[in-house]
Amino acid sequence: MEKQHLHKLVESIFTVHADENEIDCEGCGCQIDHLAELVAAGANLRELLPAVEAHLRCCTDCREEFEALVAIIRSQDTESPLV
At what angle do helices 25-40 and 50-58 cross, to 10 degrees? Predict the structure, then answer.
């Protein structure tokens, strides 16, 4: 019985993550720079591209890269320009 339960669990994981609207790391990476600029300016990522937001929730590497980009952009925006 336990083997059957494990099989169903694994099958459900692949079913949940087989959404046609999902994107992979490559697809996320193609959009991450522009999205980081928009989010740093106050845009809501979930409203802009829900598929990217869903990917970032699941992928630690992409999420860390995205958060770092947003932080860099925000820090650059708060620095005073040299005169």
Answer: 110
11 in a structural domain: no
The three state secondary structure string of 39-80 is: HHCCCCHHHHCHHHHHHHHHCHHHHHHHHHHHHHHHHHHHCC
Grade residue 48 by pLDDT with cuts at 50, 70 and 90.
confident
Confidence of residue 13 (pLDDT cuts 50, 70, 90): low
Q: From CA 32, how far away is CA 63, in angstroms rounded? A: 10
Residues 6 or more apart whose CB falls under 8 angstroms from that of 27 comprise 55
* pTM, entire model: 0.69
Total of domains in the chain: 1
